[in-house]
């Protein structure tokens, strides 16, 4: 197979959760440009429609909207029925959805942990369990592997530096990092359990990707983040999207059970 064909997602059906967010939108664009049909999900249908409408017709025709909250009990079965009826199979899932509060240790309450675990561990697991027959069908049709990519975080591997946040109270919180660490370990478990079925599980762990389009009230926040990166800069969304396409594609057909840092070297110090 030619190198460029290995990276193609032609004839692939991919589900992406949290599609309209800062990183999700870049992933959506990259997956469509790799020639896949993509099903984008999120809680806000207006945001999903805006994202779909941002693509030219030749690409937007490959973008399919399914609004919903991945933490709702009924979501997994509803998306299963939708994919089965519309496509009949599935080749990949990208678990990117997350929502939760930031804050210091003093601000954290038990509900914050409950919410983080629902998004980062329970929902990705239950979604896979429901969609497993479609992923197996995808393996049989394609003659290759299906792929699940879990979006973790460098803070699932290392702790944030509290000094970066000054006295803002907008700290990256413990429940976020702890649940992302759980997602990384769950990925390893599933990679080992599902490898014989040709369903690959891998993580990416994005580093500092602050949304620079949003107003930031923390003094010198972006500059202080950049200082902690060997490359001396923060990341831009397309730099996450490329590795996602790679892990979904046949170019990664023997890549299983990894956690890929995308952090400019932050965790290499």
Automatic annotation (TrEMBL):
Q: Which residues form the signal peptide?
A: none
Which terms are listed as keywords in the entry? NADP, Oxidoreductase
Annotated source species: Methanospirillum purgamenti
Q: What name is this protein filed under?
A: SDR family oxidoreductase
Q: Tell me which SUPFAM superfamilies the record gives.
A: NAD(P)-binding Rossmann-fold domains
Protein's UniProt keywords contain NADP: yes
Molecular function (GO) terms for this protein are: oxidoreductase activity
Matching PANTHER family: 7-ALPHA-HYDROXYSTEROID DEHYDROGENASE, 7ALPHA-HYDROXYSTEROID DEHYDROGENASE
- Gene3D superfamilies named in the record: NAD(P)-binding Rossmann-like Domain
Q: Which family does it belong to?
A: Belongs to the short-chain dehydrogenases/reductases (SDR) family.
């Amino acid at each position: 197979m030619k190198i460029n064909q290995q990276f193609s997602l032609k004839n692939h059906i991919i589900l992406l959760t949290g599609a309209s967010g800062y990183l999700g939108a870049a992933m959506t664009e990259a997956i469509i440009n790799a020639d896949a049909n993509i099903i984008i999900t999120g809680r806000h249908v207006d945001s999903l429609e805006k994202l779909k409408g941002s693509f030219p017709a030749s690409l937007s025709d490959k973008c399919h909207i399914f609004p919903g909250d991945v933490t709702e009990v009924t979501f997994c079965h509803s998306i299963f029925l939708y994919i089965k009826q519309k496509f009949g199979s599935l080749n990949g899932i990208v678990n990117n959805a997350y929502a939760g509060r930031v804050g210091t240790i003093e601000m954290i309450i038990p509900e914050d942990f409950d919410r983080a675990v629902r998004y980062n561990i329970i929902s990705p697991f239950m979604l896979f369990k429901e969609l497993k027959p479609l992923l197996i069908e995808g393996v049989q049709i394609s003659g290759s592997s299906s792929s699940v990519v879990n979006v973790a975080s460098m803070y699932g591997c290392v702790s944030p530096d509290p000094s970066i946040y000054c006295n803002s109270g907008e700290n990256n919180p413990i429940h976020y990092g702890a649940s992302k660490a759980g997602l990384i370990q769950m990925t390893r478990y599933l990679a080992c359990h599902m490898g014989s079925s040709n369903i690959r599980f891998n993580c990416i762990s994005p580093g500092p990707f602050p949304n620079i389009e949003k107003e930031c009230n923390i003094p010198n926040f972006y500059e202080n983040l950049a200082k902690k990166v060997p490359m001396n800069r923060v990341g831009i969304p397309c730099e996450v999207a490329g590795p996602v396409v790679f892990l979904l594609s046949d170019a990664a057909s023997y890549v299983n059970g990894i956690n890929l840092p995308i952090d400019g070297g932050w965790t290499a110090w």
